[in-house]
Amino acid sequence: MSLNNLFIFNSKSKQISPVTNALRTVFWFIFFLILLDTILNLLFPYPSDPLDVSPSQLSRYFDYGRSVEAKVRRQIGPTDQTSSPLSRAGWLNSDERKTLPTQPDSGSTLLLATYGMSFSSQVSEAVKEIDPHVSLRLIAGPTAPPNFSFTAYNLDRKKHNADVVILGVLASSLSGMDAITGMNWNPDVPPSYTFPKYYIKDGNLKSISPEINSLEELRKALKDKQKWQKFVAQMSTYDRFFNSFIFTHNVLDHSSMIRLIRRGWQQKHIESITNKIHTAKGFNPKWDQIPVLKAIIKEFTNTAKADGRVPIVLLLNDQKYDDHLFKILQTTLEENNIIYVSSHKIAPATNLKNFVGDGHFTKEANLKIAQEVLNVINKNLAKPIL
Q1: Which helix (H) or strand (E) element contains residue 43?
Q2: Strands 164-170 and 110-116
Q3: What predicted TM-score, i.e. pTM, was given to this entire model?
Q4: Which tens digit of pLDDT belongs to each residue from 173-189?
Q5: What topology is assigned to 93-212+278-380 in CATH?
Q6: CB 96 within 8 Å of CB 85
């Protein structure tokens, strides 16, 4: 055999088939993806301690797409004291309610009971700052929707002697009326508290109570497959924001890359729902929870008056919502002589100077809204605050 023929023979023997090349490429691609995934998990771990609420920004970023169930499980410790503050917040039957004032404090002349979220609590605290004669009874849930606030009010009616009751309604929280828990509605950092979902039947408000109603019940359900599946089934039926891919804990939670993909899916899922509820033009009047909201504020007003209290509906129009909350309720408020305060004229949502970085009102804006609340209280009380 000549040297030339030998060279040709050796060259052909070393040639690699296209299939082998493709398999090698796929192998190395997967290998480096796994390597990158592992490095990201090692560099940016999320704290496993439920009480560690200050992860790094990147740790938080790579964790957003973790399943809701995995996040909730991580938040829950063996006891309430060892569970995260977020997991403890908002439960309607919390023992913390027992420590709230039931009558005006010494030196005060009026007890104000407020049901809502941090926005309504901040306004109420500003009321007390303006007038120290006011004592506060505050019940709130993280970004709580009106169905939470209304339920909290009803559960609390016979437990205090408040002169004035406030139902806080936050524009950006309205979509939560289509949920029964904060888990699916706020999946990035899910609060685990639950609340009823309301509907109208034969002209009356009816409610669907959640299967789980306390942190202790949630802790037990997480250890009981049958109870947990019953709660999951209820969410899949009555919680519009529930999505199995976003919610269910599985092996995919260990992959930072998959978590990023799931986070993108999660954002699109939430957006697809909220866009049917609210757009740049306002709230969708055909959304089936709008009549429910109107019924809630009417029943709140009527029952509070029957109890001898001054009821105030506090409408909080936050960023991107302009005056939309007020507009969708204006006719109901006026036709039923409902006492209300709306922030849209006092601290317009279109003026970003009215808000701090996390989306809440500035102290100045809260004081302006609070002053209007005080004006309304003094106007409607039989005897104005001293």
Answers
A1: helix 18-43
A2: parallel
A3: 0.89
A4: 999 999 999 999 999 99
A5: Rossmann fold (3.40.50)
A6: no
